[in-house]
Every structure is written in C-alpha cells, then in structure tokens.
Amino acid sequence: MTSTLESKKHSPRSIKRATIVTHGKAPTIGPALARVERVAREHGVKLIFPQEEREKHGLENGGADPRGADIAVVLGGDGTMLRALHTFLGTDVPVIGVNFGRVGFLASIQPDQLESRLARVFEGDYVVVELPTLEAEVEGKTFVAVNDVVATSSILGRMVELQWAVGGEDLGRVACDGIICATPSGSTAYNLSNGGPVLVRGLEAMVVTFVAPHSLHARPLVVARGLDLIVWNRTLDVDVTMLVDGHASATIAPSNRMIVRLGEQRSLLATLPETTFFRRYRETFGS
User: Fold this and answer.
1) Would you kindly state where each structural domain of the chain is located, as residue ranges?
2) CA distance 107 to 81
3) 3-class state of residue 244 by DSSP
4) How large is the average pLDDT for residues 246-268?
5) Distance from C-alpha of 244 to C-alpha of 164, rounded to nearest angstrom
6) Which of 6, 75, 245, 256 has CB atoms 3.0–4.6 Å from 22's, for a disulfide?
7) Residue 139 main-chain phi, psi, to 5 deg
8) Which residues are known to be catalytic?
9) Residue range 267-282, pLDDT digits in tens
C-alpha cells in the first residue's frame, strides 16, 4: 500500500529499453552489472549504456541515446542516484536504484533482491514519484539542485556572517558556518545531520537550516513554494562558496547574494509500490 502523502505519481510504462548508471570501478560493480544483463535478457529488455559507462566497462562504442530509454537503473548509492537524477532532468526517464552504497535512501532495491525486484520493474510493476528541485541564482547564473544548495565559508574553520530573507522579508543576520536549503528528498541528507526536519515526499516546500549557528534563535524554517530565500554574504573578508548537490558551483563575494527557490523542473524517482517513503525512512534511520 502506498502513502497518500507521497508526490504525484505517473502511470508506469512497460520497459523495452533501460539505461545503466553505475558507481565505483568496473571490477567492483561488474558482477552486479552482469546480473542486470541476465535479467534484461530474460525479459527482452535492451540495455543502453551512456558513453562513460561504455568506456568504464570496456563496451563497444555507439548505441542509442540513453535519454530515449524507458527507465534508468542505478547500481550505487545516493550519490550515484543524484548523478542519474540530474542527468535525466527534463526527460521522461525515471530513475530506480539498486543500493550498492552506504545509505541508499533513494534506492528501493537491495542487492540480494536484484533479480526478483528488477524483474518486476521490467514487467511494469513500479511507480514514478515526482520530486521538486531547487533553482539557485548567483550573479545572473542559475543552477538546479535535486537535493540541496549550501552556502558555506570558503575558508575551513572560519565563521561567516549571513543575512537572510524569505518572501521579501528580512530575517536578520546570523554568524554561522553556513546555511542549507534542501528539497524534501534532500532533507534526509546534510540537512538532517545538522538537526533540520525531514520533509515528507509530497510537500511543495523547502527547508532552510543553519550550520553551527552562533545563536540560540536560528531555527530551521520550512518555506512554501513561491517564496524565495535570499542569502547575502555580510562577512567583510571571507568569500562564501555555494555548493549545489555537494559540488562547488559559485562564489558569493562580500555583499553579494544568492537566491534559492523551488524550481519548475522535477526529477522522476521510480520505486516499487511497497517501497514507500515511510518504509525507507524506518529501514534507513530507525533503530
């Protein structure tokens, strides 16, 4: 039974072509890839390999465009899932994960279930969940995040002073190590480790959480769609680095700012019907 609070779902389509995204080195993930290939042959599914995957696994060059696949199968953890969700933003290709990472919260298949559950996926027994993204803007350049946008000191160990506003209303200045803005899917990552709340899939909101604030009053804030978060760097002599899904993407000089909002694009996460948000939450973070 699936949760009624999860995001809007798409009707699944039968799988004729699947693309593959893997983590790690070929000798490590190769046996798992061979298992996927066997399941694909048994179900008449053609596998499409992106160029980097062909090079990694020593496959012949050429082939169809991975963006024309019916689904993307990820062999890896949450980092690889994020990479795949980014890759297929703006397409109709949903992403399903087999967890070969450490946490794997976004994955819905465990390694020992690969054959049985991937067979179900290839037969059309899956759901597709829309996940909101973030748009971050610095000096006229726009970046898209699936998980989170972080503004942090460019000098390790140096505190920064950030001024912030939401919906055009100033909320003051905070001395801190940084600030996190996360989507519901990203709320279980860096945001959670900093004491921020978990946002259930289906919420059209983002969460704002400070990193090590030098204040008793800087509490996480959940912000609805349509309200922009603006963060100014008010530190006189330290730049602020903007990280988009963990990657340094822009520098915010003193007196400059970044703007973050819920984006128009949505990433497509495929899951098994019984692998709900609350089930994965309990399995991953429960005692």
Assistant:
1) 9-126+272-285, 133-264
2) 8
3) strand
4) 97
5) 18
6) 75
7) 50, 45
8) 78
9) 999 999 999 999 988 9
